[in-house]
């Protein structure tokens, strides 16, 4: 995979709560220069002139412990404000309780508020889960209408993306649903390992550093 091909897989991300409007504009300018797929920002940062890039916004971030109605309202507002893609955090309590019907209900509420062609990614926080929970939550998210399942917020103390988690996700959802690897990916070697494991999208904040190591 060359630099251009990887760049088209990247959600160029800035989710620091202290980020300013100027920081986000700098993110957009850098994303345009690097040729990324989208910029991913906090919901209060939109509407946003993304200069031709797609705009991804987080929902229920970072804990996921919001009521489904609250996530749905946040999703509807993001759609009204111009978001093209939505990265929602799953309810980890429901996952760890293995209440798969409630996990699905959570995703379905957001999917209804953010219909296609909007792209819905469901963040599972895989580092905090068992292999069984990773697989079952990915299956529940896919059945509830997710377009992607995603490893991590990047904010959980348990950690971010791993090759093992990406492999589990890719096998669980099959080719019809994308897999986004995100959280702690800071080198080209790590990014390529995620792609080899089955990732079809990458969430990166160190995008320039990762892409600089690739040719083409």
Structural commentary:
The chain has 9 helices and 8 strands. The chain has 216 residues and is an alpha/beta fold. Strands 1-2-3-4-5-6-7-8 form an 8-stranded parallel barrel, surrounded by 6 helices. β3, α3 and β4 (85-89) form a beta-alpha-beta unit. α5 (100-113) packs across α6. The mean pLDDT is 97.
Question: Brief overview, please?
Answer:
The protein has 216 residues and is α/β, with parallel strands linked by helices. The chain contains 9 helices and 8 strands.
Output the keywords.
9 helices; 8-stranded parallel β-barrel; 17% strand; TIM Barrel; globular; 8 strands; 216 residues; alpha/beta
What is this structure's SSE topology?
Blueprint: H1 3-7, E1 10-13, H2 21-34, E2 38-41, E3 54-59, H3 68-80, E4 85-89, H4 92-96, H5 100-113, E5 119-123, H6 131-143, E6 148-150, H7 163-173, E7 178-182, H8 188-197, E8 201-204, H9 207-212
Parallel strand pairs: 1-2, 1-8, 2-3, 3-4, 4-5, 5-6, 6-7, 7-8
Helix pairs in contact: 3-5, 5-6, 6-7
């Amino acid at each position: 995979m060359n630099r251009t091909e990887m760049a088209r897989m990247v959600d160029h991300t800035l989710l620091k709560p202290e980020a300013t409007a100027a920081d986000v504009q700098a993110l957009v300018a850098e994303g345009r220069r690097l040729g990324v797929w989208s910029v991913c920002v906090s919901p209060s940062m939109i509407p946003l002139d993304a200069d031709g890039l797609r705009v991804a916004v987080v929902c229920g971030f970072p804990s996921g412990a919001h009521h489904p109605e609250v996530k749905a309202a946040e999703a509807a507002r993001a759609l009204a404000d111009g978001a093209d893609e939505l990265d929602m955090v799953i309810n980890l309590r429901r996952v760890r309780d293995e209440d798969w019907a409630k996990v699905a209900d959570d995703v379905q509420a957001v999917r209804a508020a953010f219909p296609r062609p909007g792209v819905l990614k469901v963040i599972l926080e895989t580092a905090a889960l068992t292999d069984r929970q990773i697989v079952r939550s990915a299956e529940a998210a896919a059945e509830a209408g997710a377009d992607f399942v995603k490893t991590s917020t990047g904010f959980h103390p348990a950690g971010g993306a791993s090759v093992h988690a990406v492999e589990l996700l890719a096998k669980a959802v099959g080719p019809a649903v994308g897999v986004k690897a995100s959280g702690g990916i800071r080198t080209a070697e790590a990014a390529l390992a995620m792609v080899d494991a089955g990732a079809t999208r990458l969430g990166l904040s160190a995008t320039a550093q990762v892409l600089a190591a690739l040719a083409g």
